[in-house]
Hints:
Blueprint lengths: L11 H13 L4 H15 L14 H7 L1
Helix pairs in contact: 1-2
InterPro entries: Arc_rbn_hlx_hlx, Ribbon_hlx_hlx
Protein name: Arc family DNA binding domain-containing protein
Amino acid sequence: MAKKAYPLRINEEILSAMQQWSDDELRSLNAQIEYVLRDALRKAGRSKAKPIIPITDPIDEEHNN
């Protein structure tokens, strides 16, 4: 997925709260804003959730077959 730069004007208090949240989550501010937007889109039914593909251990699969 390509990323596109977008200038954002945002309320100073909201930006400060987002910065604190991103620090708490060990994310960059940009990644936190994208995470929150993506989650809101998914919850509003505006975006499809990416399927979760389970990670399998090849050794376990050998023992199960």
